[in-house]
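Bumping with the actual sequence this time:
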Amino acid sequence: MKNLKFYITGILGCFLVRILLFTLRIEHEPGGSLEKVKKSLNIYAIWHCTLLCLAYIGRNANIQVLVSQHSDGEYIAGVIKRLGFGVIRGSTTRGGARAVKALVDKTKAGYSIAITPDGPRGPRCVVQSGCIYLGKKTGVPILPVTVGMSNYWKLPSWDEFRIPKPFSRVLILYGKPLFIPPQLNDEEMEAYRLLLERTMCEMMKKADLLAQQK
């Protein structure tokens, strides 16, 4: 019964995502970034609250996504699989050895991966160290991507999950690739973690401002 519930939720969720986001006015900054990044190998770092829009933007690109093993992760996995993503279950911080190995293997096979560095349970907009470790381990650049919305609903969840309202404007803002050197001590790892966190927080504020101004 539980598996049937997840199956039905996945189908309905995918359908609703496609219908809702089809109505949006989506822009990319800088222009042409979407086509450019799809041709390169990246670790996409995205805030958990912006998953909905970016799942639609990155559909059918066979990007591998790290999804938690919590029950809510089961719902997310069901939806994004039907949007054309590969799914790796686990966390980079909790029981993460198997998940990290799977992510590393995927990058070696030529797949880009996407993670929410503040997931699966927060704190909101705080980068966890697992993201930096992946960049160090794989040699693949971390590409921060944030989303600004002109009008949206905010859910009462830990991440203040955002659902754009129909016909609103959405701006996808791409940062500069962040390369993590392979030989770093704990102090240097922390410096890169703080750099990524600060960059993504600043980008999100900028994206919101641009989406609301245009």
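The tokens above came from a reply further down the thread. The chain has a mean pLDDT of 88.
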